[in-house]
Amino acid sequence: MSAGIDLDDVCCDFGNFRAVDHVNVSIRPGEFFSFLGPSGCGKTTILRMISGFTEPSSGAIRIGGKDMKGQRPNQRPTALIFQNLALFPLMPIWQNISFGLEVRGVDKATRRKRAEELLALVDLPGAADKMVSQLSGGQKQRVAIARALAVEPSVMLLDEPLSALDLKLRQHMRAELRAIQKRTGVTFIYITHDQGEALAMSDRVGVMSHGRLQQVANPRDIYNNPVNGFVASFVGENNILPGDIQNVAEGMASFATPIGTFRARLGEGAQGGRAKLYIRPEHMLLSPQPGAENSVPVTVADVAFEGNFIAVQAVTENGTHLTAELRNDGAATVPATGSRMHMTFDAQRSAILPDSGAQPVGGA
Amino acid sequence: MRDLLRRYGAGLTAGFIGLTVFWLLILVILPNLTLFESSFRPYLPVVDIGGPKDVYSLGNYMKVFGAPVDASFFGITFQLPVHIKIFFGTVYYSALVTVITFLLAYPLAYYLAKIVSPKSLPTLFLLLFVPLWVSEILRSFAWFIILAFKGPLNALLLNIGIIDQPIRFIAGYTPVIVGLVYTYVLFMVFPIYNAIQSLDTNQIEAAEDLGSPWWRTHWRVILPHAKPGIASGSVMVFMLSAGSLLVPTLLGSTSAQWFTQTIQQWMLEALDWNTGAAYAFLLLILCTVFVSLVMRVFRVRLSDIAK
Fold first, then answer.
1. Considering only alpha carbons, which residue of chain B is nearest residue A82?
2. CB atoms < 10 A from the CB of A203, how many?
3. Is B116 within a domain?
């Protein structure tokens, strides 16, 4: 049982501050959807509006087609997993998990049985009678998920639930969350500022900045075809070159920058005039000879061997810094610092994007 | 100790410790020990003190069992020594005062801790504290006037038509209860406020998100968390009420004796300090026992209260 969610031109103001600005998005039933953005971009406010703790200033929120206006959190078919989990420390684990059932008047034996089942589902059998303080971070995480699943919500809302865990556990829980979502088929809405998390787990990602939804797409498109400079620079690394758009033709354009004129793919929002060229470091090739097109002579300034890749910092003749990440396939040679090389990139794997949305993010 | 020496030097440190020791030993422990010792000795004319009649006994404590009078409790009438009747009245009404202060203080403490915006909190605290700037005697007299037969409360109730005959409020234990609740309610508000304030608001929201109605959130999440605060507030209000002298003296009537008044009568009217001391220790010991029993019933540990 899962439900879709429609945010229809939703705004939310706190005094003079607009936390959420005309957000429109339809989340499909059973989808794993992430809102990705820096802190203060309004993603948590969206979550609180869906769960009912905050009312939108304007616009409508529909869950399963039903308008949620005026519905309290305890009347909505959603379950929220808080950033700090908010488990009840004075109840044993099984009572934590079955609290939502207790509220619904389910008898004790059934509740206990259901709690055991859910503990098995989240791979934590035998913890029913422990107290919250006896569990590790990852175990608490699972209890929080089980507690939310117990009320059989149509929608699960997760507010950066992995941020308190260490790296290894976080990666493990990513896969676990994804698996639980697939098993239960519940719509998951996930809030995070961690692009890796959002890309790895989600069916679709909505990138937010300044209360606005910048782009909604699947993780591949978010990474490969960002619509603007903000999305491109927030998700992943880039070489960014400012310049002017010239000779537009069939989605491609010539782009004049201080270090030369390149041919590159024209992003959706870019029409003409000033813009920026974005090239991922892993799409930069480093070679002794110049390539056929889009090649710049550089001097290698610094080489860092990272294991799975080799990061090369290079400087052009006019002092512009460029980065290339070379995949380490076992045979890759590490270029020598100070050597003169050429950096080349594929026109299809670069993007000319408008500046909008790329401003540094401020506000609360 | 070493920190203290390093920070303040030998002279000041000796001063601090000396004053503390003086206060504890000379002003607290010694007078209590003197009273405790004298509570076992008979009340004698000065010439007999130290003589053959001056021997230790439990006689003073046994005096509570004298002078039986009729008592009735929930419709059952039975004989009870007058001082024991007063003692039970004191404990019973002190417990009642504690329950009433809790019922008043809990919603107020919750409101202050979780609902009020932090900006208006200082103003509200000030409003709560302002009455404390007036002395307890004046406040008790104020209640005497408010509750009087021809006083403002009766006038108000008559005027808005809730009653058609003035009510005699100043009778029995009612005015004492009103006065004690008013005097000690803040001792209940602040421990509960502290306890609720330390509760993570996310837990309240989590309960609501899981479908809990407000009363169940209070019962299952907020009240259990506030229990230590409720316990320390209750112990304070109960002990202060049972030990209060001023409020029962000003607002009580002859039919509403407080045990502290009995102690005062032994000491100041009968001039029998020995029996007065014995009664005072009875009150202390029995109230402590009562509080310990109640704490056991509600499964509160002493360490919870000390937090």
1. B202
2. 16
3. yes
Domain A238-353 is found in CATH 2.40.50.140: yes
CB A254 within 8 Å of CB A246: yes
Asked whether residue B171 is domain-assigned, the answer is yes
One domain, residues B242 and B144: yes
Q: For an interface test with A, give the residue of B196, B200, B202, B210 to mutate (most A CBs within 10 A).
A: B210
Is B210 within 8 Å of A151 when comparing Cβ atoms?
yes
Q: Does B299 touch chain A (CB under 8 A)?
A: no
Check if the interface score ipTM surpasses 0.85: no
**B77/B16 same-domain check:** no
Mean pLDDT of successive 10-residue stretches along chain A, which has 364 residues: 87 90 92 92 92 92 90 90 91 93 92 91 86 90 90 91 81 86 91 90 93 92 88 88 85 86 81 84 88 87 87 89 87 81 88 64 35
Taking Cα atoms as reference points, which of B148, B207, B230 lies closest to residue A96? B207
Beta carbons of A80 and B208 less than 8 Å apart:
no
Q: What percent of chain B has pLDDT over 90?
A: 34
pLDDT, tens digit (0-9, with 9 covering 90-100), for A34-60:
999 998 889 999 999 999 999 999 999
Establish if B48 belongs to a structural domain. no
The answer on B254 and B188 residing in a single domain is yes
Strand order in the sheet with A321-327: A284-287, A340-345, A295-305, A309-316, A321-327
Q: Least CA distance to B211: which residue of chain A? A: A74
Please indicate whether, in this complex, the C-beta atoms of B209 and A88 are within 8 angstroms of each other. Answer: no
Average pLDDT over residues B164-170: 82
Task: Note whether B113 and B30 are same-domain residues.
Answer: no
C-alpha closest to that of A156 among A52, A2, A300:
A2
The CA distance from A314 to A320, in Å, is 8
Indicate the fold that domain A5-224 takes in CATH.
Rossmann fold (3.40.50)
Looking at the structure, tell me whether residues B172 and B241 fall in a common domain. Answer: yes
**What residue numbers bound the domain in which B31 lies?**
1-38
